[in-house]
Amino acid sequence: MTENPSRKARSSLTGRKKVILVTYRDEFMKNEAIGLVEAAGYSIASLLDQKKLNHSQYGVGSGKAEEIKSIAEELRTQMIIVDDRLSSSQAHNLAKFTHQEVIDRERLILDIFNSRATTTEAKLQVKLAELKYEIPRAREAVRISLKGEQAGFMGMGEYAVDIKFRALKKQMTLVAKKLEQAKSRRELFRVSRDRTNLPLVSLAGYTSSGKTTLFNRLTSETKEESAKLFTTLTTTTRSFEPINGKKVLLSDTVGFISRLPTYMIEAFKSTLEELTYADLILLMLDASEPIENMEIKYSSCRNTLDQLHINPIKILVVMNKLDISSREGKEKRISLIGELPSIGVSAKTGEGIRKLKVKIADTVYPESVRPSGFAEELVKSYPHPLVEPVDTRPLD
Questions:
Q1: Helix (H) or strand (E) holding 107
Q2: Distance separating alpha carbons of residues 69 and 59, to the nearest angstrom
Q3: Which of 162, 206, 216, 349 could be joined to 297 by an S-S link, Cβ 3.0–4.6 Å?
């Protein structure tokens, strides 16, 4: 086992390694784990579930480890992915027992991030997160090597691990310094942007909720759209006119996911900070999903926004994918978000988009900029049970 395999081997999304996925019995967790594995380009040869993944020796229970070993030999798989955080010793023990490469959920997410990063800043952010992931494991590798075992399947030994630990610390300092420089440049861009006096609207939400599709719909851009997780890792900002003659800036940001470690949020803080400067945040939810899934994803998004100290008064919930959502359960969907305002759209077909534009304009500009009778026309043209009525009172 090489617990930390070479980046070249990990980041290749064309290799289609056959893997064994070990996840929880909960259906939401199971489906999300499958989505992550597929986003990384792996082929799931066997899917196993277990009630707990925090057993001391292997992460999985000893009986499950026996089962994994048997399946790995039978199917000739190349990797085991465990859908939770593993310590270095747990990954080492499981790899040694099964003779398979072992990675955990956090390493899997980092591999996806690494494959999606295209800009210098995004690559630095991913690198910082990787280093924060590796450093505690390097410490544990030293402990393993002191016991006379190699630190990892075909590992490096005590001396090499100690050198690696010090190198990781030095790298982290350098990357953090480069990110500070990138942050300074971003601040200059922000100051320049503020001089335009254009309001900023930011898209936020769970990964694969349709943020980039809505971004493209509103700005006429052609950013890559995909059902795969974490298609967007960098912030893109463009202008558009919600109503004639009044422009706003719209930013697309990285998607959220459940059980995302704090150090990953911290690594992407310079990108996510864009949300703190927004005049309005469009929090995207997939309205086509079961209410239980929406509840989990909404809670995860709100937790991340809370960590960024986002004022809830700036949030407008956008329930997307009306074209494939059930019209039943409107009350449950609305009650899910409590007191926050909401609106329903289909970023794919355009349903509800004009009403969303009106809502944006009403929020970031005075009502007096809205043409008389415009909202009344929209209410008649785009009725839908998930859409909140637009204010049709006469303008002063």
A1: helix 105-116
A2: 14
A3: 206
- Is residue 10 within 8 Å of 111, Cβ to Cβ? yes
User: What is the greatest pairwise CA distance in the chain?
Assistant: 81
Alpha-carbon gap, residue 255 to 298, rounded angstroms: 12
Task: Looking at the structure, give the CATH architecture of the domain made up of residues 1-116.
Answer: 3-Layer(aba) Sandwich (3.40)
Q: Compute φ and ψ for 368, nearest 5 degrees.
A: -65, -15
List the CATH code of the domain at 197-381.
3.40.50.300
Q: What is the pLDDT of residues 199-232, one digit of tens each?
A: 999 999 988 889 989 999 999 988 876 666 666 6
Displacement of CA 382 from its chain's centroid (Å)? 31
pTM: 0.79
Q: Match 């399946």 to its residue by tokens.
A: 71
Beta strands in 17-164 (DSSP E): 18-24, 43-50, 79-82, 101-104
Give the Cβ contact number of residue 368 at 10 Å.
7
State which amino acid sits at residue 323.
D
| Sole residue written with tokens 């800009």 | 119
**Taking CA 54 as the corner, what is the angle to CA 50 and CA 58, rounded to the nearest 5 degrees?**
85
